[in-house]
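Input C-alpha cells:
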C-alpha cells in the first residue's frame, strides 16, 4: 500500500492493510492509545480535525519517522499531507428549549431542555452529573443532552454549566427561568410550606386552623409530630430538622426520618414492642392493623393486641371481621374475650382488618386512619380497597423478616425505606 498521507501512516502503523504477523512496528506506550483511536477513525472514513493532524504530525516526527525509514519507507512528505480536508468540529456551548425532532430526525415533537457541548475528557464528570439530574427523562444525541424542561431541571442544568469554563450561549427563556429559581431560592421562607421558627407558613388558612386543632401551638415538644407528618400536610421546610427527632427511640427516629411513605422494618433487628413504642411516640393513631393470610390470624392479632392494650383503652379498639368457626374458632373466641367487637366511631384508635376485605362501614362511621401496620411485605394486598387505603396514607409499616424484592433490590426512588 502506498504511503502518501498521514492517514496512510496511521493505518500502516496499525497494520490495517497487512496481516498482524507481518506488522513490523511496536507502538510507543506514550502515544499508543491515541494512535489507535485516531487510526480507527480514519480507517472508518472519518476525516482528521486540524488539531488531530498537528498532534499526529508531531508524534510521527518524534517517534515513528525513523521506524518507517528502517522499513524502507520515507514519510517525510506524507505526514504533511491529509487524505481529506480538515473535519470541522462544532465547538458550540449552548442551552435552550427545543423540539427534539429539530435536532434528532424522526424524534418526538415535544419540547425539551437541551444542553450542547463538544466532548472533552475533562467534562466527563459534568456529563455524569447531568445524567443524574433527571434519569427518567434523559436522552442523548451527538453531544446534545435532553431533559424535561421543568424549573428544577433547568436550575440544575444551568448550575452545572456555570461550573464549566466556556462561552455558553443560554437562551433568554432558559435564563429567565433560572433567574426566577435563584430569586425563589433566596426567598424560600416566603414560598415553601413549612415550619419556620416554630411558625407554620405558606399554607392555606384552613390548613393552619386544622393543624392548630390537631396539635395546638407548635412547640419544641410537639414539632417532631409535624415533621413526622410532613408528607401528609405538604410541609417541606423545617429548621434544624436533623435535631427534631433525636430525643425519640432509635426506631421512632428512623421512622420519622423516612424518605417516603412506606417503611419496611426488619423483624430480625427490631421487636414488636419497639414497633408499638415508636407508633406511640409518634402518636400514629387512628391506626389500621392489617391481618394477612400468610400467617395465623389469631397469632397476629395476639401479637399486636397484647401490646396495644397496654397503651390504648379497650373501648377504642375494634376487630371488624370474623373467620369461619370451623377452622378459626380460637380467633373468634379471642375477639370476644378481649372485647374487640366494639362499634367503630371517629374516636376509635385501632381497627384490625383482614387484608382481603376493607369494610365500607369504616368510611360510613367516619373513621379515617393515618397509618397502617402489617406483618406482610410491601407488595400490594390481595384487596384493592385495602391497598388503596394503605397507599393513601403517609405512613405504612410492614414488619417482616423477609423484605420485599422491591425493598431489597429496588433502586433509589422506589419510596420504600428499609430499617
Amino acid at each position: 500500500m502506498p504511503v502518501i498521507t498521514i492517514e496512510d501512516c496511521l493505518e500502516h502503523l496499525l497494520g490495517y492493510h497487512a496481516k498482524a504477523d507481518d506488522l513490523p512496528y511496536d507502538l510507543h506506550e506514550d502515544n499508543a492509545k491515541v494512535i489507535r483511536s485516531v487510526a480507527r477513525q480514519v480507517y472508518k472514513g472519518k476525516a482528521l480535525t486540524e488539531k488531530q493532524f498537528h498532534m499526529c504530525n508531531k508524534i510521527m516526527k518524534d517517534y515513528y519517522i525513523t521506524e518507517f525509514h528502517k522499513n524502507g519507507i520515507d514519510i517525510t512528505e506524507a505526514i504533511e499531507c491529509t487524505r481529506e480536508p480538515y473535519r470541522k468540529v462544532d465547538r458550540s456551548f449552548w442551552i435552550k428549549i427545543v423540539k427534539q425532532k429539530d435536532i434528532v430526525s424522526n424524534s418526538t415533537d415535544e419540547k425539551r431542555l437541551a444542553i450542547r457541548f463538544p466532548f472533552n475528557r475533562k467534562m466527563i464528570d459534568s456529563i455524569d452529573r447531568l445524567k443524574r439530574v433527571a434519569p427518567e427523562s434523559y436522552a442523548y444525541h451527538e453531544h446534545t443532552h435532553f431533559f424535561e424542561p421543568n424549573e428544577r431541571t433547568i436550575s440544575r442544568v444551568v448550575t452545572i454549566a456555570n461550573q464549566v469554563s466556556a462561552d455558553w450561549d443560554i437562551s433568554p427563556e432558559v435564563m429567565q427561568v433560572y433567574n426566577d429559581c435563584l430569586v425563589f431560592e433566596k426567598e424560600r421562607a416566603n414560598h415553601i410550606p413549612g415550619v419556620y421558627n416554630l411558625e407554620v407558613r405558606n399554607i392555606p388558612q384552613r390548613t393552619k386552623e386544622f393543624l392548630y386543632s390537631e396539635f395546638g401551638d407548635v412547640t419544641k415538644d410537639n414539632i417532631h409530630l409535624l415533621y413526622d407528618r410532613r408528607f401528609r400536610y405538604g410541609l417541606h421546610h423545617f429548621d434544624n430538622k436533623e435535631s427534631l427527632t433525636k430525643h425519640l427511640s432509635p426506631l421512632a427516629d428512623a421512622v420519622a426520618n423516612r424518605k417516603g411513605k412506606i417503611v419496611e422494618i426488619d423483624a430480625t433487628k427490631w421487636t414488636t414492642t419497639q414497633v408499638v413504642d415508636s407508633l406511640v411516640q409518634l402518636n400514629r393513631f387512628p391506626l389500621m392493623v392489617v391481618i394477612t393470610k400468610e400467617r395465623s390470624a389469631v397469632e397476629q392479632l395476639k401479637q399486636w393486641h397484647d401490646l396495644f392494650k397496654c397503651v390504648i383503652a379497650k373501648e377504642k379498639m375494634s376487630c371488624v371481621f370474623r373467620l369461619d368457626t370451623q377452622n378459626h374458632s380460637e380467633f373468634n373466641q379471642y375477639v370476644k374475650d378481649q372485647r374487640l367487637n366494639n362499634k367503630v366511631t371517629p374516636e376509635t384508635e385501632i381497627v384490625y382488618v383482614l387484608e382481603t376485605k376493607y369494610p365500607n362501614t369504616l368510611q360510613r362511621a367516619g373513621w379515617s386512619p393515618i397509618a397502617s401496620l402489617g406483618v406482610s411485605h410491601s407488595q400490594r394486598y390481595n384487596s384493592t380497597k385495602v391497598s388503596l387505603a394503605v397507599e393513601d396514607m403517609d405512613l405504612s409499616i410492614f414488619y417482616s423478616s423477609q423484605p420485599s424484592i422491591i425493598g431489597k433490590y429496588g433502586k433509589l426512588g422506589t419510596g420504600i425505606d428499609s430499617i
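Residues 409-413 have pLDDT under 50 and may be disordered. Residues 324 and 332 are 8 Å apart (CA to CA).
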